[in-house]
Amino acid sequence: MFRKILVTAAMLAAFGHAYAAVDVNTANEDALRGIKGIGPAKAKAILDERTAHGPFKDPADLGKRVKGMGGHTVERLQAEGLAVGPAGAAANAQTAASSQAKGTTVSADASKANPTVTVKK
């Protein structure tokens, strides 16, 4: 009985983690690297492009502006939890709302209009 409860809890935790979206327009390097398929070089390229030319409007904009990220790559990264553009903002807001209920904090950086979510472990 205990084993079944433990397995169920592990599966629920895995599914919850898989659906936690990382918004490309607000994420830091560590959050981007948490997405399967984004390493240190790709995370740096994304951050450099975002810093130089502003937020990404949509997945196609991300694919055009960051070298080595074509349409299929962006689609695969979205399946892994990367959010881009207006849909990403909605997912980020939903994640922030659920995080507040779980005891995490949401703070707004003065230099950014989008909130960032800090998870305390």
Automatic annotation (TrEMBL):
Keywords: Signal. Residues 1-20 form the signal peptide. The keyword Plastid does not apply. The keyword Heme does not apply. Residues 95-121 are annotated as: Disordered. Residues 98-121 have a biased composition (Polar residues). InterPro entries: Endo/Exo/Phosphatase_dom_1, RuvA_2-like. It comes from the Bacteria. This is Helix-hairpin-helix domain-containing protein. It comes from Paraburkholderia metrosideri.
